[in-house]
Design brief:
mainly alpha, two-stranded parallel sheet, 19 helices, about 60% helix
């Protein structure tokens, strides 16, 4: 840890061989305590530095909460893994069949499954989006004669053949569309600080709406038989999650459908029986997750949650996770960037939703970045007041396109 801190000091604080404390203003780390402590050390060297949590990491933690602690999302993710293991594994003849029909439905290009991994942010959700894309190829595979002749994986195919399952998968994916957009904003590697608060506020608006659709559609789209089939298939597909090669494409592109012989099929059946026996011994179907929190009034994206009472369900649970992670996205730079964005859509939104919290963020940044730190007493107060007054005067010109902001050409690229 000490060596890492020394490296950060040398790379961030040393410029051209000498200390330049005015060069770095904003530093982002993930939420680990050690690296956040390193950020605090940087702040001790340079009072101008603001240390924040990386937005990509924050949103990925939200997705991790959803897919590990919400039973409905966890059930769907486990089912998707088993589908991938059956049709995307090099050990099964169905994978060769699936390659054939995947190419047929994608203009000759094989599009395979995506395996969730720790290094892929929101990997579980991305895997579900890919499963949704592969719907036509999967249904063509399981309705083909060569797959029917295998006489295997009846539980999985019964689910994939159910049109209501695909509607449910779409509803579940759509529910998390807004936070996925926040994640993509963070990892696109282009300046986007002025858009972060706007995307967060849109997530506050869209997430409860589509999560309610999930609750409303769950009972109507999925029968008890289909839910039981999904749960059963998770433990009877005959392969573990590690049996997939973990890639989107397989090396054995020349394998023909039905190339596995009867001995291989019998071997797979024996593995299926063994895994079913082992899993059923330790399976606990009584695992439920209940969370309590208050009725939420999201009138502002910077309003923190207040928890009280008993409210449970998919929407309540997922919103609790979102409200837990959201404050780390709402730092002074995202608040100030929001009201200073030249994007017409964000400008119109800011005109209706700007609050004193945004003004406070701007004033804190002016104080930290622009006020001469050598000044004390009344001189410091006077300079700060003049800078803030100048900002609001120029901000009025900016929002109304007056003065230097009246030129049309400067707004074209916004």
């Amino acid at each position: 840890m000490h060596a890492a801190i020394k490296q950060i000091e040398s790379e961030v604080l040393d410029v051209n061989g000498k200390k330049s404390p005015g060069v770095i203003d904003l530093v982002f780390f993930d939420g680990a305590s050690n690296v956040q402590n390193a950020g605090q050390i940087l702040k001790a060297y340079n009072r101008r530095i603001t240390v924040g949590h990386g937005a990509e990491h924050v949103v990925s933690l939200f997705f991790s909460d959803v897919y590990t602690k919400v039973p409905e999302f966890k059930r769907l993710s486990n089912f998707a893994k088993q589908v991938r293991n059956i049709f995307g594994s090099v050990r099964h003849s169905p994978s060769a069949m699936f390659k054939k029909y995947s190419r047929a439905h994608n203009n000759g290009v094989y599009i395979g499954f995506i395996k969730p991994s720790e290094c892929r942010m929101a990997g579980e959700h991305i895997a579900l989006l890919r499963l949704l894309r592969l719907r036509d190829a999967l249904r063509a595979t399981i309705t083909s004669k060569e797959f029917f002749d295998l006489r295997m994986f009846h539980t999985v195919t019964s689910v994939l053949n159910d049109p209501e399952f695909w509607k449910w998968l779409f509803v579940m994916c759509r529910a998390l569309y807004a936070p996925m957009r926040v994640l993509r904003l963070a990892d696109q590697k282009t300046p986007a600080m002025d858009k972060l608060f706007y995307y967060v506020s849109q997530t506050d608006r869209m997430l409860p709406k589509y999560l309610k659709d999930v609750e409303d559609c769950l009972a109507s789209l999925l029968s008890e038989a289909t839910l039981n089939a999904i749960d059963t298939s998770t433990f009877s597909a005959g392969v573990s999650d590690d049996d997939s090669d973990g890639s989107d494409t397989d090396d054995d592109d020349n394998e023909e459908p039905g190339s596995d012989d009867a001995e291989s099929v019998e071997s797979n059946d024996s593995v299926t029986t063994s895994v079913m026996t082992m899993c059923s011994k330790y399976l606990d179907f009584a695992l439920l997750y209940f969370f309590s929190y208050s009725n939420m009034l999201i009138s502002s994206a910077i309003q923190y949650p207040h928890r009280a009472g008993n409210s449970t369900g998919i929407a309540a649970t997922v919103m609790q996770f979102w409200l837990k992670r959201k404050p780390r996205l709402l730092h002074d730079y995202s608040l100030a960037g929001y009201i200073l964005s030249p994007n017409p859509t964000i400008m119109a939104h800011a005109s209706d939703n700007k609050t004193l919290h945004h003004d406070g963020a701007v004033e804190r940044l002016i104080t930290k970045l622009l006020v001469d730190p050598s000044l004390v007493g009344n001189d410091w107060t006077i300079q700060r007041a003049k800078l803030i007054d100048t900002f609001y005067e120029e901000y009025g010109d900016f929002t109304n396109r007056r003065g230097v902001f009246a030129q049309e050409n400067i707004w074209i690229m916004a």
